[in-house]
């Protein structure tokens, strides 16, 4: 781990690549939240989702600013990840408003956890940008409230939502594993000059993600 | 036309209703732009659409603030218009990025023209809010540029886009006519104590919309 603001050349390339991935994730989340807002049964829910989308866009800008500071090319750093995010969202298209709410909470929560785990491997300033962008306490509170409201008006929906959340976890982890295994620059970061992330450590990382997922399910009052 | 900041009770109810319609139009446009951003061939186009969406959300807040100043209930004022906007967007779902760009320019342009026409019938402060929210000069410049870029890489697309724009005009005008004819509160405004908008005047209004549509088509280099 290079705890300085200007990482060396190989780490810099890998960090730009990582920031590109996270920035595109935020831009994609912005689009999906804004689109799913349409499913809300009342205007208040639409507005709440729209505001969450605005926050994601702010995070996108934050990550992009750091990417540019490191001399990265936004288009080049983001474009390779378009298929990963497209595949995830294609495979987890919510069919109802409550599914959209649970997806925003569970799916984006896993993405944030994963990003924070990887942030340990980059320079201090990039890490700070990532941690600020992935701070999801406020959005979590909003989403848990929206889910509770929705489940109150349809108490029989819990079982279906628990299955849905389990599927979201599976799809999110699958995409994260693909990215961790296939992107050379990420491998460079994770097994580079700093703390190594071997297969055992990677397994522990995903175990931590599963544990935090279980905590989120508890906050929703759903079985994990 | 009551050129004061506090319209009388009947006009106030009608103005709140109008602001509700326009606010929901902005919120819906926000969602559609953000969703259609996904279709951009490069990240730059996605970001451009996302930024246009943010501007729409700002307009939504502006209209809502005036609605609240007049003592209106946002949910009550917006909800009745949900089917109109849903129908318009359902019937004009773009199949390609260029169709999305032309829709944002042409469709939202007609909506802005229509809103400005109706703004003549409300109090000065509400009119100012509507005119600020409907100022589409900056977005028009962005969209004309995106359209030109897209058509450059696919010069054979012009004929198809001209037909698409004609359909957008038809659908937008059809929804506008429905709203103008069916909503009692709008009828109150348009035929109320101020300047009357009889059928002849309404016909002239739609003729003006068609003329401005033709100007937009010329800016795109397409036949109207």
Q: Would you give an account of this structure?
A:
- Two copies of one chain form a homodimer.
- Chain A is mainly alpha-helical.
- The first copy, chain A, has a single domain (9-220), classed as Ferritin (Up-down Bundle).
- Chain A has ten helices and no strands.
- In chain A, helix 1 crosses helix 9 and helix 5 (97-119) runs antiparallel to helix 10 (199-220).
- The radius of gyration of chain A is 17 Å and the shape is globular.
- Chain A starts with 8 loop residues before the first helix and ends with a helix.
- The mean pLDDT of chain A is 89.
Quick structural gist:
2 copies of one chain form a homodimer. By secondary structure, chain A is an all-alpha fold.
Overview features:
Ferritin, 10 helices, globular, homodimer
The average pLDDT of chain A is 89
Order of helices and strands of chain A: HHHHHHHHHH
Radius of gyration computed on alpha carbons of chain A: 17 Å
| Class derived from helix and strand content of chain A | mainly alpha
Question: Which two chains share the most extensive interface?
Answer: A-B, 27 and 27 residues
* Largest sheet report of chain A: none
CATH superfamily descriptor of chain A: Ferritin, core subunit, four-helix bundle
Protein name (chains A, B): Ferritin-like domain-containing protein
Pfam families (chains A, B): MiaE_2
Organism (chains A, B): Nostocoides australiense Ben110
Domain Ferritin-like (chains A, B): 13-192
């Amino acid at each position: 781990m290079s705890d300085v603001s200007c990482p060396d050349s190989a780490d810099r390339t890998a960090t730009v690549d990582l920031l590109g991935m996270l920035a595109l994730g935020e831009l994609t989340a912005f689009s999906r939240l804004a689109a799913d807002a349409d499913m809300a049964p009342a205007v208040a829910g639409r507005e709440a989702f729209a505001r969450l989308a605005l926050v994601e866009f702010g995070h996108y800008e934050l990550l992009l600013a750091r990417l540019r500071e490191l001399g990265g090319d936004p288009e080049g750093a983001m474009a390779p990840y378009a298929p990963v995010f497209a595949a995830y969202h294609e495979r987890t298209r919510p069919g109802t408003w409550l599914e959209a709410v649970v997806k925003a909470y569970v799916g984006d929560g896993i993405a944030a956890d994963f990003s924070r785990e990887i942030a340990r491997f980059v320079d201090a300033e990039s890490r700070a940008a990532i941690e600020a962008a992935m701070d999801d306490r406020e959005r979590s509170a909003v989403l848990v409230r929206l889910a509770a409201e929705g489940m109150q008006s349809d108490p029989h929906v819990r079982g279906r939502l628990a299955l849905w959340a389990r599927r979201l976890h599976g799809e999110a982890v699958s995409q994260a594993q693909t990215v961790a295994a296939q992107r050379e620059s990420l491998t460079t970061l994770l097994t580079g000059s700093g703390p190594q992330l071997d297969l055992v450590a990677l397994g522990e990382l995903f175990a931590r993600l599963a544990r935090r997922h279980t905590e989120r399910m508890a906050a929703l009052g759903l079985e994990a």
